[in-house]
Amino acid sequence: MTNTIVVVGAGVSGLTSALLLSKSKSNTVTVIAKHMPGDYDIEYASPWAGANFLPMSTREDSRWERRTWPEIKRLAEQVPEAGIHFQTSRIFRREKDMEGPSCPTDPMFDRDPWFQSVLPDYRELNTAEIPNGYETGCEFTSVCINTAMYLQWLVGQCLLNGVVFKRVIITHINDAKSFSHTSKPAPIVINATGLGSLRLAGVQDKSMAPSRGQLVLVRNELHPMFTTSGTEDGITEIFYTMQRPAGGGTILGGTYDVGNWESVPDPNVALRIMRRIVDMCPEIANGKGIDGLDVVRHAVGLRPYRKSGVRVEKEKLEDGTWVVHNYGHAGWGYQGSYGCAEGVVELVNEIRRENGENFHDEPKLS
């Protein structure tokens, strides 16, 4: 029996969900979205991401990231055209930031993090490796993703599996079922609309809010990538850097400003971002300070922050249509993408069994 599915949203969560669903020959998948890979719009978060793998979940809620890492690692090792490469990552901690929550990325800075048994080469740094102003730190092998390449690669993999893409704007989640490329309405809809779930009728999740992220993309190179537990510039400003593969440039960040919808880069924030990086790593600019940074662009993205955490669950609408939700990832959409998509497949299969279908599809990441 053919199972018709419409995925709403073409960010990393929607595309990964579509990819895993399309691995089953019994699923017919259509992706509909207002924005597609190649677009740069403030409503479309995925292209603006760094993106890397720095675990942000608590130990208790770490399934999505734990399940994603093996596949991201495989792609970095075996699929160079996906635009993912390994990078050594360092985390620097300040004792004063450990006294209370500073932003939703806090579990990353735990002194005994759950991910030390997941990410390769984990070790605590010695005193000589800690920059001035920080007390402790750790190092491990992570990845950085060239989002422009990777989103297009996901589209290509979906197309190979027969997924059809349509540019569509919907105002109610129930409208999605009628946009299947088949001749019949889809009984299952995947809601991967990210921040759009705040206003999309039929969902209207009031726990959603933007988490504004401002960054600077430069041509300068810097290794390894790093992030810190806090800055002297206020709770909304964070300090990190990573180098994208395949000439994607180096990301300098940033901000984590929940509730801020402003889409235009703030020049004062940009100046602070650049000052922080050249103060800690003058070699990035050959000792020339900010003037030594070769800026590609200043950018702002709105992370889909959800106060109550990511939503991966099923819901039955009044007309009998099933919706499987996959949104609210805040700043960890890429590093939770395969785990959450695996959860989507499991929920779709639960629905099919409840409908009396006899099959043995299971999510397969590779």
From TrEMBL:
Domain FAD dependent oxidoreductase residue range list: 5-347
GO molecular function terms noted in the UniProt entry: D-amino-acid oxidase activity; FAD binding
Cofactor entry: FAD
Residues at which D-dopa binds: 240, 303, 331
GO cellular component: cytoplasm
GO BP terms, alphabetized: D-amino acid catabolic process
Residues reported in the UniProt entry to bind FAD: 193
Keyword tags: FAD, Flavoprotein, Oxidoreductase
Similarity comment: family membership: Belongs to the DAMOX/DASOX family.
Name of the protein described by the UniProt record: D-amino acid oxidase
Provenance organism: Conoideocrella luteorostrata
